[in-house]
Design a protein that fits this description.
Elements lengths: L2 H14 L16 E6 L4 H8 L7 E6 L10 H11 L5 E7 L9 H10 L4 H9 L4 H4 L6 H13 L10 E6 L6 E5 L1 H6 L3
Parallel strand pairs: 1-2, 1-3, 3-4
Antiparallel strand pairs: 4-5
EC number: 4.2.1.1
Keywords: Metal-binding, Zinc
Family: Belongs to the beta-class carbonic anhydrase family.
């Protein structure tokens, strides 16, 4: 049985047994938070438990490395939707130690793309359209600095209300221990 068939088979039993009932909540986050985190599989259940967040408490946005790479990209749009349409009042960026984005090498990734059938011509078309894949695919050297950068992109966004605190945390993907990188309350109070 393939993966999608397994998922659909499970889903039939999930619905028939009304397992969904224990997850029912509204679309509005009870703790009025939007959390941007990395998509690392180790954080799926660990991150909410380590932060004392349950289903319905927060809006969860994910990207590789918890990076906001463009101020008008889909990550920032999701954060703004959470604030303006879904009543979130604070933003928390959560990076993590041992992040795979710190090891990303654009040239090696593009070589893997070619191995999996992406034609050389595709890379030329992309390059000629003005996209610099080496920059777009690069990782980061320091996860703490990366969290600070994402916090800055969010906090300095022209469409973000000035009173919204934007915090930065790092989580240990083994123990769940949280370290504060940016205290958004201090920045909000200082008018930054």
């Amino acid at each position: 049985m393939n993966t999608i068939a397994e998922i659909l088979k499970h889903n039939q039993a999930f619905v028939a047994e009304k397992e969904y009932e224990k997850y029912q909540t509204t679309k509005f986050p009870d703790k009025r938070l939007v959390v941007l985190s990395c998509m690392d599989t180790r954080l799926e259940e660990l991150l909410p438990k380590a932060m004392n967040l349950r289903n319905g408490d927060f809006k969860h946005v994910k990207s590789a490395g918890a990076v906001v790479s463009h101020p008008f990209g889909s990550i920032m749009r999701s954060i703004l939707v959470a604030i303006y349409e879904l009543n979130a009042e604070e933003v928390i960026v959560v990076g993590h130690y041992d992040c795979g984005m710190s090891a990303i090498n654009a040239d090696k990734m593009m070589a893997k793309m070619k191995e999996r059938g992406i034609a050389e011509e595709t890379f030329h078309i992309i390059k000629n359209s003005g996209i610099r894949l080496n920059s777009w695919l690069r990782g980061f050297d320091c996860v703490e600095e990366s969290v600070k950068n994402s916090v800055d992109v969010i906090k300095n966004h022209p469409l973000l209300p000035v009173h919204v605190p934007v915090h930065g945390l790092l989580i240990d993907p083994v123990t769940g221990k949280l370290d504060q990188v940016v205290n958004g309350y201090e920045r909000a109070d200082a008018g930054e």
